[in-house]
Amino acid sequence: MKARAQLTMAPDPSTTLPRSEGVEGVACAHCSLPVPRGMFREGEDAQYCCESCRAVAEMIRGCGLDAFYRLREATGGTEDARPASRAGRAFEELDADSFRELYCTEEPDGMRSCELQLEGVHCAACVWLVERLPELTRGVLSARLELGRALVRLRWNPEQTTLSEIARRLDGFGYIAHPARAAGARAARRLEDRRALIRIGVAGACMGNVMLVSIALYAGLFEGIEDSVRMLFHWVSVLVGILAIAWPGSVFFRGALASARRGAWHLDQPIALGLSVGAVTGLINAVRGSDDIYFDSLTMLVFLLLIGRWARVRHQRGAVDSVELLYAFTPRMVRVVEGEDRRSVPVESVVPGSLVAVEPGESIPVDGVVCDGSSSVDASILTGEAAPVRVETGASVTAGAVNIASPIVVRAEAIGAETRVGQIMRTIERLASGPTPIIGAADRLAGWFVGTVLLLSGACFGVWLHAGLEVAASHAIALLIITCPCALALSTPLATTVAIGRAARRGLLVKGGDALESLAGGGVMFLDKTGTVTVGRFALRDWTGDEALRPLVGALETRSKHPIARALATDDEMPVDDIEERPGLGITGIVDGQRLALGSPALMQHLGVEIPDWATEASDQAAASGRTPVLIGVEERVEALAELGDELKSDAPETVRALAERGWDVRLLSGDAPGVVADTARRLDLDAANSLGGVSPEQKLDVIDSVASGATRVMVGDGVNDAAALARADVGIGVRGGAEACLSASDVYISADGLGPLLTLVDGAKRTVRSIRLNLGVSLAYNSVAAVLAFAGLVSPLLGAVLMPLSSITVVALSVRARTFQEADS
Amino acid sequence: MSVIFIVLPLALVLAAFAVWAFIWAVRTGQMDDTQTPGVRLLLDDDDAEVRRPVAPDDDAPTPSS
Predict the structure, then answer these.
(1) Within an 8 Å CB–CB cutoff, is residue B64 touching chain A?
(2) Separation of alpha carbons A822 and A423, rounded Å
(3) Does position A420 have pLDDT exceeding 80, yes or no?
(4) pLDDT classification of A742: cutoffs 50, 70, 90
């Protein structure tokens, strides 16, 4: 009653949403994905693409929080919205004493605090929603969400509420809570971030002050200046300049030394060379009272370079975050069975041989063998196959798989890092932290650059030797300083940062410039099937027969844990009697006085329900096109047919064709059954021989490795089973709607809908690389001009002060002007 | 002696104070999250008339029409 009344009062979000393609021309009111025909409900204002979205949206409305949708639109978060997912668990493990000791902090006044990592956080409106917790749940004192890391800091009164209640409330809003692990790593990273920020701040302050003094000095060159004042200005520049080089600038010296020790070239080396020569010369000249001090240019160099570096580091962060989220996929707390007792313990304390109880709806925490009970498990996390697998006593199960149907007891064989999913995570961690295969273009130039500059300044010294040792030395040094590769060091990070910023506005989140560089040329592109080229969720696609039956069917399916049932469940509270689930066949029960049977033809035959010809025909047709038909028998006759399935994204065939035209070798690589994959390949006009199905996460790595090196290998996927492959490929692209862990393991995350954004990405990458090349060309040209001027003995500190920022400004202007991701609209 | 000999060091001292204040702010964690406080500013607290759901365990509201 309450929720319905709220629905009519609420502004209709479906009219305000930007995109409305899809089967019915209607977008989901919660996540704005197209609404499948089967989910469409006549006469309702708000339509949803799946039952989870409906449940979450009704929860939000029911709490009077409709403003969430307005805020989300106002802050531009609608584009990034993903279908809601709910764990539907009790989260009681969060209340265990051992959990409290590990993750919670007890405060002196008896309050407790804890950090939880939330799945499903995507925009500013999420901050608002999560931070309403204290008003919604008695006993919650404060909730602060950190958007970038999806980390919520909670404080609550343990006498009034429990952490599990808070987690259930968050779950109701579509945010699944995980304990935030790796607190040590987070703290270390926070310190590193703070140091970098302090360096930028100090360098900026130094630059500003030196600039002010220098402008006065240059004015003095023209207008005349008292000697004592000039000396004061000189010494202030020297002091502040040396501070800037010795404190924030020291990172360049350390970087140069570190790569020199490894025997590698790095752009830090010419920078360190220019900085040190400039500082020493400036100091000597200041002592001698000469005008040739360069500290204005040098401090600016330090400041601009630090900003460039900061931009780069921020983009590389995602890889580290990914691993933290991945661990959240296996539960941290498990229930160990000891005789009649069940104790909640942290997963770390489980040893092989322990018996672990897993309730329906929970993830299995360990690799092991089922020793009591039978159930079905959803192992899509590892296999990518959406259909659940039946497990009986004696069957092997893997950590991370979700138990669906009934309670089971598992004898642990491998725990934590030893489990299969743990090993995949370690692979990702290793791949993410390893050296990037592609060294930035600027770094590749660095070695060549250092040599040339040194040679040139030597030559310059030789040419001017006839004019005296002092003149020759001063010209050679001027050449070293003025050719310091500021513009060169800025060119790549700036062009990529600007391109990445623009791409983000188009729904493409690119983590590093390397990805754009690799995507600029063609190569081999592997596409995952489920969720990447298809919509990725089992949903009601079509309904034939009596519409009035749908609420009855929904009520019955709500009682089932089977994933097919989830697609039909409606959460309607209708009395249902005599429910019987028949594994592998379907479900029967009495709803509203009518006996319903939902399931396969075999179930109908078994029960003696008559199947009319139209139903047989339609069900065969559905099965042939890759859908799963569910017959709906009422009493003695099949009255309706529901078709469930996972369809191709509407723009998939077109995108695949366009990619092929651009020189990409597109192949499917999926964990789903080979037959289904071959069928999908055929519908996409792809070579079925190159499209592999039934591939395990580990095999995916081998397939990617088997592609001849030299060709760029791109993996596009959405599941955790793709995560290792995403990390291994030269460029990993995660698509909308996927598991967050996989998205963060990838180099690019496409948050816009459909497959079309892949094209935008490939085209934008090409333009970005062109813009980087232009920048490099300009900065090298500037350096050549500067070298010629120095050779001619024309370089004065004033010319240096004009030329050095001019080159940087040119590069900045070119980067900003470059139409990398702008004109992709056409 | 020109007044600049007093004003310039004074300016530097002021700048040093500003730098110290910045470092203090960073070290006390005020710059740790540069994203959320910016959006939090835009969100009104009184946008919603929050209704606490009846039962705390009642995750899904139950439309009973």
Answers:
(1) yes
(2) 41
(3) no
(4) low
Kindly report the average pLDDT of chain A as a whole number: 79
* B55 touching chain A per CB within 8 A: no
Domains of chain A with bracketed CATH: 2-80 (no CATH), 92-180 (3.30.70.100), 331-418 (2.70.150.10), 508-535+649-751 (3.40.50.1000), 539-645 (3.40.1110.10)
Q: A368, A414 in Cβ contact below 8 A?
A: yes
Residue A380, CA distances (Å) to A232, A562, A672, A697 in order: 71, 14, 9, 11
| DSSP string for residues in A617-657 | HHHHHHHHTT-EEEEEEETTEEEEEEEEE-PBPTTHHHHHH
Residue A318 has pLDDT above 60, yes or no: no
Q: From chain A, pick out residues whose CB is under 8 angstroms from the CB of B23.
A: 198, 201-202
H or E stretch covering A369:
strand A367-372
User: Which DSSP state fits A122?
Assistant: -
Helices A486-505 & A797-817 angle (0-180, nearest 10): 20
Model ipTM value? 0.77
Helix runs in A662-735, H state only: 674-683, 697-706, 723-728
Cβ contact, residue pair A64, B42, below 8 Å: no
Greatest alpha-carbon pair distance for chain B in Å reads: 90
Query: Which pLDDT tens digit goes with each residue over A536-559?
Result: 667 777 788 887 888 888 888 877
> How distant is the Cα of A572 from the closest Cα of chain B, in angstroms?
7
Max CA separation in chain A (angstroms):
112
Q: Do A197 and B31 touch (CB under 8 A)?
A: yes
Q: What is the pLDDT of residues A810-826, one digit of tens each?
A: 887 888 777 777 644 43
| Segment among A590-594, A746-750, A794-798 with least mean pLDDT | A794-798
pLDDT tops 70 at residue A412? yes
Rounded to 5°, the CA angle A513-A515-A516 comes to 65
CA–CA separation, A133 and A73 (whole Å): 21
Q: CB B43 to CB A127 under 8 A? A: yes
Kindly report the nearest CA distance between residue B27 and chain A, in angstroms. 7
